[in-house]
């Protein structure tokens, strides 16, 4: 345990040295490349205004996203009704999609437990 702590401290020291050496130059480069996105004047009031704009813009996009969702649901219903016409490729894609969703669920559960493997695997 002590060896791992020393190793972690060493890595943290290296990271600190790297950031102190290259951090300022990287910051300036990123700010220069993205200056078109910077709002002037950079005040708390401007940040609050932009935050509200983002929130209400996202809120206004809900009807469009809801409409897209229901179109997808209708497409799935149509595919289910006509499942006898379903090709093997389509079924394979659907199975892979379901498997991917399950894998992301499992990964989320593992991350949520702090990267411990219990339940599903043990």
TrEMBL record:
Entry's localization field: Mitochondrion membrane
GO biological process, one term: proton transmembrane transport
Superkingdom of the source species: Eukaryota
GO CC entries: mitochondrial membrane; proton-transporting ATP synthase complex
Keyword terms: ATP synthesis, CF(0), Hydrogen ion transport, Ion transport, Membrane, Mitochondrion, Transport
Main location: mitochondrion
InterPro entries, A to Z: ATP_synth_F0_gsu_mt
Keyword Transferase assigned: no
Record-stated family: Belongs to the ATPase g subunit family.
PANTHER family, sorted: ATP SYNTHASE SUBUNIT
Protein name according to UniProt: Mitochondrial ATP synthase subunit G protein
Species of provenance: Cinchona calisaya
């Amino acid at each position: 345990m002590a060896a791992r702590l020393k190793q972690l401290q060493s890595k943290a020291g290296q990271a600190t040295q790297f950031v102190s050496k290259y951090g300022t130059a990287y910051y300036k480069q990123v700010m220069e490349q993205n200056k078109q996105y910077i709002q002037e004047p950079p005040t708390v009031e401007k940040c609050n205004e932009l935050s509200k704009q983002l929130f209400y813009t996202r809120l206004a996009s809900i009807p469009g996203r809801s409409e897209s969702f229901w179109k997808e649901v209708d497409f799935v219903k149509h595919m289910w009704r006509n499942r006898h016409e379903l090709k093997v490729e389509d079924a394979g894609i659907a199975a892979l999609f379901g498997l991917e969703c399950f894998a992301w669920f499992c990964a989320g559960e593992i991350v949520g437990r702090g990267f411990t493997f219990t339940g599903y695997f043990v």
